[in-house]
Design brief:
The structure holds 2 protein chains of 2 kinds. By secondary structure, chain A is an alpha/beta fold. In chain A, about 40% of the residues lie in helices and about 25% in strands. Chain A has 2 domains: about 190 residues, P-loop containing nucleotide triphosphate hydrolases (Rossmann fold); about 60 residues, Roll (CBS-domain). Chain A has a 6-stranded mixed β-sheet, sandwiched between helices. A 4-stranded antiparallel β-sheet of chain A has the order 2-1-4-5. The longest helix of chain A has 18 residues. A two-stranded antiparallel sheet of chain B has the order 1-2. Chain B is built from 26 helices and 2 strands. Chain B has 5 domains: about 70 residues, no CATH class; about 35 residues, no CATH class; about 80 residues, no CATH class; about 170 residues, MetI-like fold (Orthogonal Bundle); about 200 residues, MetI-like (MetI-like fold, Orthogonal Bundle). The chains are: A alpha/beta, B mainly alpha. At the A-B interface, α4, β6 and α5 of A face α10 and α11 of B. Bound molecules: adenosine-5'-diphosphate and magnesium ion (MG). Adenosine-5'-diphosphate binds next to β2 and α3 of chain A.
Chain lengths: ~325, ~650
């Protein structure tokens, strides 16, 4: 990762319960036992993450593990009990109310699990809403809103009210609204969890398509590991408010840091995460059936490699870094590695 | 559990036995010990609160001075700000616009013609929902014209149209403040509780003193009466906005006021409209009552007829109130359910078909009315009066059923009302305080016990013990009967959907009627006295008992019923063993509401001659004695508060026992 860090979050805590602030002052690093005794809920415990420009950073964990609270700390919708958060090098927790409003208006966008659309506004007005509160004139904001509505594939439905749309369409409006101000940092809190599986899949594709165009820095929350794998550059696995491991999907599967992560990744289809580079064996000959990009997942080339008698070369930056043969692919497919 | 139940029985029977004994022999006790204080609170220790309040009000009106202005200036300013729009509305609906005064007055424009008013009402009905509502509202207003109630109805309407926006906007503002500042809500809540339990007559008196006899005083009283529910609905509605929607607003970068006016309030509009509907109905209720202090209108007609014993006139005006209540209620409910719609497209007339029609009709009738008077005012010759018909009908009923009614009345009086009255009337005030405290303690802990005892002591120390006991007895009997009638009706409504629709529909209508209306038939049939009061109170307080019973029974979770059926329960067993026990918290809430409504109605029945706290308030009203009125009003409010807390504690305990809390 050579891209600059946009959001830097260090030792962030969020405790709920009586006298949470005082407790952490007297007790800088309490364990879960101590929290329970004090009657406090450790929604976020000592979390440190760095989010780089242009990456899709997924926070994954079961319901109640503190994902929503963490992402709300990052946008300061929730005031952290302790810790530091720097956004583009500036201390976010020191920002005044009016500075925060400015940051949210210009640089952050958020998509919500239950869509959170305003029921009395049309698709167009909902999308233009963040621009309206900034005082952008009607013509300008509606033109911009129409652009994003077109972008998320809702062109032609500008005049509909939220209740006249399906769940998937409503979330497209939610996405359009969060993109209207061209945010640099884009938060999505379980955006597809309220949708049916088929629609969810479609929305994931749509999301990847958008990201290919927009290259935003994204913090994406999900409780669905398959979704995390499909979308993530890096995944943070959360449990009981703490982060268990931060890694690429492949590392998570190949080298789980804790028992908990291992348990989680055990049943994942490995062909979906393991990439050509990790399978690459040293080159043995100089006749090959073809070339593979180093970051292609096994699933995408398994059939091709299996059908060929000769191994395939793995290419990174124009150079061959190794080879993949039929046997290596079959090992992955049957779960030998 | 069994032992607990046993001890509980012992406590309640013991308490009742002691109370009964003391009630029966209190007089003998006083004679034997020669201690008159046993049955009468010693006069030298009575709280002088009423005099203090009266003095304070006198001081306010006479000499209070806030440096820049006097209190009188303040009330005058308030009066003027209300008076002005009210006069404009009266000109618009009734008197017509004039220039100059007295003899030189020249009419510039006549009031809106009856046709224009009806068309406007229909337009609103259609805008709110559909043609059927438009027809209903139109028919209601046409009724007012055809049956000769137009003038009075328009006076009432003018008051409603002034009081509703003030009440709704004021309630919204207070509700927003309470939502924003928790300390303000803590401050406001007891005030609201008190305002909803203090009988309306009680604050008519000080308002009368501050604003003088007339429509302004009536409007001020109306606004005060109708505002509290709007405050509550507003805070509830704002709290009900989903947290994610608020977060979306914050992420969009809303400022505080943008958050309120662009996110919270618009999202809460459907619930807020329910509050507006309540404001409208309470306003109508109060406008009718406030006729007594000079608002005029339909309520005044009813009152005047009752005083003259003009049965037909009373019923006519009463029906007009009913009709108006139905129109206002249905239209405002339709608004609450309306939701946003797509604006129509096209030219100005196509986009605003109703506004266009209304303007045309107003203009048209204005011109045509100059030539054809019937267009301007509904011709007198064509009005139908049903007064004689009603008088005859009542006459007939009285002739044919007088003995039956008298017999029923006598039976209830001798076997129910009098014994209960004696029981409550005999309780010595000292023991009353202790017993109330014990009851509340048993149900809700020592804090509640202490509160109940203190409030009861206040009533006794104000020298109102005897009258308070009459209130308790009348309210108690009425509530018991209303519950005995209401709960079976509610069960029936829940068990048989067809009957349910009819019953619940009837209850809905009953609840929209201003309380005043209930007095009319009751007085006609039974004349004045405790029995009439009881019937009116039962009728008025029946609806919540029915509704909550129907809800409670209907809301029992289906899996539990299936489990019951699989265990082989019969229908009756299902009802008695599963549904009723699970519905008890709801039944208790219904009981609570029944008690509250009964108390508020009881005060109004003072007009038909009960000798309870309501009468005390009413007397204070006629003597314009603010202190007396307020203290007696507080007495009623305290009874209501004690009953409310005890019943709520019971419901809470029951919910915990059922694991529903
Ligand atoms: N406002 C709050 N008050 C008290 N506890 C809270 C609050 N918000 C969240 N929690 C608790 O914090 C924990 C984490 O919640 P959340 O962040 O919503 O989890 P997730 O989004 O992963 O499902 C949960 O145990 C939840 O009950
Ligand atoms: Mg969550």
């Amino acid at each position: 990762m050579t891209k600059p860090v946009i959001l830097d979050c260090r030792n962030v805590w969020k405790l709920y319960g009586p006298h949470a602030d005082g407790f952490l002052g007297a007790n800088p690093a309490p364990d879960p036992e101590a929290l329970r005794e004090a009657g406090l809920i450790g929604a976020v415990r000592d979390v440190s993450v760095q989010i780089h420009q242009g990456e899709i950073f997924v926070i994954m964990g079961l319901s109640g593990s503190g994902k929503s609270t963490l992402v709300r700390c990052l946008s300061r919708l929730v005031e952290p009990t302790a810790g530091q958060i720097r956004f583009e090098g500036k201390d976010l927790l020191a920002a005044s109310e009016s500075e925060l409003i400015e940051i949210r208006r210009k640089k952050m966008g958020m998509v919500f699990q239950q869509f959170a659309l305003l029921p009395h506004l049309t698709v167009l007005e909902n999308t233009a809403f963040p621009l309206e509160v900034q005082g952008v004139g009607r013509a300008a904001r509606e033109a911009r809103a129409r652009e994003v509505i077109e972008l998320v594939g809702l062109g032609g439905r500008e005049g509909y009210y939220p209740r006249e749309l399906s769940g998937g369409q409503q979330q497209r409006v939610g996405i359009a609204r969060s993109l209207a101000v061209e945010p640099e940092l884009w938060f999505l809190d379980e955006p597809f969890s309220a949708l049916d599986p088929l629609i969810r899949r479609e929305m994931q594709d749509e999301f990847l398509r958008l990201q290919n165009i927009l290259h935003k820095t994204i913090v994406f929350i999900t409780h669905d590991f398959d979704e995390a794998i499909r979308l993530a550059d890096r995944i943070a696995v959360m449990k009981d408010g703490a982060i268990e491991q931060v890694a690429t999907p492949e590392e998570l599967v190949l080298r789980p840091a804790t028992e908990y992560v291992a348990e989680f990744t055990r049943h994942v289809g490995r062909a979906k995460v393991i990439r050509a580079a990790s399978l690459a064996a040293p080159l043995t000959g100089d006749s090959f059936a073809g070339d593979l990009p180093h970051d292609a997942v096994v699933e995408s080339f398994a059939a091709q490699v299996e059908a060929a008698d000769l191994p395939h070369r793995v290419i990174r930056d124009g150079e061959a870094i190794g080879q993949v043969d039929r046997r290596a692919v079959i090992d992955v497919l049957v779960g030998r590695r | 559990m069994a032992r607990f139940g046993h001890r509980g029985m012992l406590f309640w029977t013991g308490l009742f036995a002691v109370t009964w004994a003391l009630s029966t022999w209190s007089f003998q006790l006083y004679k034997a010990l020669d201690a008159r204080w046993i049955i009468r609170f010693p006069a030298q220790y009575e709280l002088p609160l009423d005099d203090r309040i009266s003095d304070f009000l006198d001081w306010l009106v006479e000499s209070a001075n806030f440096y820049l202005f006097t209190f009188k200036d303040l009330t005058r300013a308030i009066a003027a700000t209300i008076e002005w729009p009210y006069q404009v509305l009266r000109d618009l609906l009734i008197e017509g616009f004039q220039r100059g005064l007295g003899d030189q007055a020249v009419q510039i424009a006549p009031p809106l013609s009856w046709i224009a008013v009806i068309v406007t009402a229909m337009a609103i009905g259609h805008y709110a929902r559909d043609w059927r509502l438009a027809a209903l509202v139109g028919a209601c207003f046409a009724y007012l014209a055809v049956f000769g109630q137009w003038q009075s109805a328009m006076i009432t309407l003018a008051s409603v149209l002034i009081a509703v926006p003030i009440g709704a906007a004021g309630g919204l503002a207070l509700g927003i403040a309470a939502y924003r500042a928790p300390w303000f809500e803590r401050l406001l809540r007891p005030v609201l509780d008190l305002m909803q339990t203090v009988p309306v007559f009680a604050y008519l008196v000080p308002i009368l003193i501050l604003f003088g006899f007339g429509p302004v005083a009536a409007l001020v009283a109306t606004v005060i009466y109708a505002m509290p529910p709007m405050v509550r609905v507003t805070t509830v509605a704002l709290r009900g906005v989903p947290p994610e929607v608020i977060e979306a607003g914050r992420m969009a970068g809303c400022t505080r006021s943008q958050m309120m006016w662009k996110v919270l309030v618009p999202s809460a509009v459907p619930t807020l409209m329910v509050g507006v509907n309540q404001v409208i109905m309470l306003t109508l209720n109060m406008v009718i009552i406030a006729s007594m202090i000079g608002a005029g209108g339909l309520g005044f007609d009813v009152l005047a007829s009752l005083r003259k014993l003009d049965i037909g006139g009373g019923i006519e005006a009463g029906l007009a109130i009913v009709v108006m209540a139905i129109a206002l209620d249905r239209a405002s409910q339709a608004f609450a359910r309306r939701g946003v719609r797509h604006p129509p497209t096209g030219n100005v007339l196509q986009r605003h078909p109703w506004a266009g029609t209304v303007v045309l009709v107003i203009g048209g009738t204005l011109i045509l009315g100059r030539i054809v008077p019937a267009v301007q005012t509904y011709p007198e010759a064509l009005t139908i009066t049903t007064g004689p018909f009603w008088s005859d009908a009542m006459e007939w009923i009285n002739v044919n059923f007088f003995d039956a009614f008298e017999a029923a009345k006598t039976v209830v009086l001798t076997w129910v009302l009098l014994p209960v009255k004696q029981f409550f009337g005999g309780i010595p005030w000292g023991w009353g305080i202790v017993a109330t405290g014990l009851m509340a303690w048993r149900v809700g802990g020592w804090r509640l016990g202490l509160l109940a005892a203190l409030l009861t002591a206040f009533i006794a120390a104000s020298g109102l013990w005897a009258k308070a006991m009459v209130t308790v007895y009348l309210c108690g009997v009425s509530v018991v009967i209303a519950t005995l009638v209401g709960i079976p009706l509610g069960i029936l409504a829940a068990e048989r959907p067809r009957a349910g629709r009819v019953i619940l529909g009837l209850m809905d209508t009953l609840q929209t009627l201003p309380s005043f209306v209930y007095l009319i038939p009751v007085v006609m049939l039974f004349r004045v006295g405790d029995f009439s009061a009881m019937i009116a109170v039962i009728l008025y307080a029946l609806a919540p008992a029915v509704r909550y019973a129907a809800h409670g029974i209907g809301d029992v979770p289906e899996p539990l019923l299936e489990a019951g059926r699989m265990a082989g329960c019969t229908r009756a067993q299902l009802l008695w063993r599963i549904k009723l026990p699970l519905a008890t918290p709801q039944l208790l809430l219904g009981l609570n509401q029944t008690i509250m409504l009964a108390l508020s109605m009881l005060v109004i029945t003072a007009l038909v001659g009960t000798r309870d706290l309501g009468q005390e308030v009413y007397i204070a009203l006629t003597k314009a004695n603010a202190g007396q009125g307020i203290v007696a009003g507080l007495g009623v409010a305290f009874i209501a508060i004690i009953a409310d807390r005890i019943v709520n504690a019971l419901a809470e305990g029951q919910r915990k026992r059922l694991g529903l809390a």
